[in-house]
Amino acid sequence: MNFKSTGIILTTLATLAIPMAVQAQKAQTPIGNLPNSRLMSISGEVTQLFHDEFLLNDGTGQIIVEAEPQWGQPMNLSVGEQVTVVGRYDDNEFEAFSITNSQGQTIQIHDD
Fold first, then answer.
1. What keywords would UniProt list here (predicted)?
2. Exposed, middle or buried by CB within 10 Å (0-12, 13-18, 19+), for 94?
3. Domain boundaries in the chain?
């Protein structure tokens, strides 16, 4: 095997690996399978709003998301909106660190 064929093989392998890596980064954790205390991302529909919490449903289950925006930043979520939440699961609640709405706007969450 010469250097040229080795380069072609490596380029082909890299090309095949990139889509798999991108797919792995976009993987969502279903609400029904949330493990405790691990940073993760969940997505779904906002079904109810409370003071500093909301109910999120992804079709596999629903969970209360604790979300207190940083000072001066409004929550601006509405029922029926699709969102992605980055945070951690703890004691039957999901503690949000950030929320991204369907328009791509990210809300940073205050950490108590």
1. Signal
2. buried
3. 3-108
Of the pLDDT bands very low, low, confident and very high (cuts 50, 70, 90), residue 85 is: very high
At 102 the three-state DSSP class reads: coil
Is 69 within 8 Å of 58 (Cβ atoms)?
Answer: no
Q: Are strands 62-66 and 82-90 parallel, antiparallel or unpaired?
A: unpaired
Q: Which residue has the tokens 């609640």?
A: 93
Full-model pTM: 0.65
Residue 6 tokens read as: 């080795």
Q: Which amino acid is residue 26, in one-letter code? A: K
pLDDT digits (tens, 9 = 90+) for 63-82: 999 987 766 666 788 999 99
- What are 89's two structure tokens? 């699961």
The more confidently predicted of residues 100 and 111 is: 100
